[in-house]
Amino acid sequence: MEFFGFLRRGRHERAGYALYGAAVAAARAACLYRELGVPDTLDGRFDLLCLYAFLLVRRLAALPPPGPALAQASFDAMFADMDVNLREMGAGDLSVGRKVKAMWEAFHGRAAAYRKALEAGEGPALAEALGRNVWRGAPPPGAADRLARLVRAQSAHLAGQTLADFVAGRASFLPATEALR
Q1: Mean pLDDT of the region 155-163
Q2: What's the mean pLDDT in 137-155?
Q3: Which of 49, 41, 56 is nearest to 169 (CA)?
Q4: Which long-range contacts does 103-106 make (Cβ < 8 Å, 24+ apart)?
Q5: Predicted pLDDT at 2
Q6: Which residues, in sequence order, are CB contacts of 134 under 8 Å at separation 6+?
Q7: Which run of H or E residues covers position 12?
Q8: Which burial class, exposed, middle or buried, applies to 76 when counting CB atoms under 10 A from its CB (0-12, 13-18, 19+)?
Q9: How many domains does the chain have?
């Protein structure tokens, strides 16, 4: 760690970590794994974290300043956390960078697919993108459609939250059981 590294930390770092924490908590909802059959594996958990982080970053990036800076701070928090978690799971120092890069690329690929699908409207594109990514192409019957409804509900819920809340590090997601109805 560089001695003067603290000078480069963004002024939104604390809020970014708090916002990212809200996405992590939402992605860990047990009903997503139990009711939708999302694999309760490292990959399945990563896929849901990517989904919730995407929703958060998308909302923040659409706001006036400092929304985009908060989006970057949340994204940075996510990948700092990935680095720490890989090290705690025993990944060697030499492989951590490569693994984080692969996760970064996976996040961006998923985010691009989800963004395009959401922009396409109410059709099947979002459920198809979720099926390809979350279940690797084999979702349980109806699960991808239900998750697509949840994504749209979460997106609408985030759209109703204020920039002031986000600046203060507060983001809320609907309880998954409610959003799945």
Answers
A1: 98
A2: 96
A3: 56
A4: 103/46, 103/79, 104/79, 106/46, 106/50
A5: 40
A6: 38, 44, 47, 48, 51, 144, 147
A7: none
A8: middle
A9: 1
Angle (deg, nearest 10), helices 13-27 and 67-88: 60
Q: Give the list of residues 6+ apart from residue 121 with CB closer than 8 angstroms, or none.
A: none
As given in the structure block, the two tokens for residue 97 are 């960078």
Domain of 55, in residue numbers: 10-179
- Please determine, for residue 85, whether its predicted confidence score (pLDDT) is greater than 90: no
Tokens of 176: 């998954």
Q: Which of 25, 46, 12, 70 is nearest to 173 (CA)?
A: 25
Residue at 1 is within a domain: no
Q: Residue 9 carries which DSSP code? A: S
Assess whether pLDDT exceeds 50 at residue 15: yes
Q: Is 0.85 topped by the overall pTM?
A: yes
Query: Residue 94 pLDDT more than 70?
Result: no
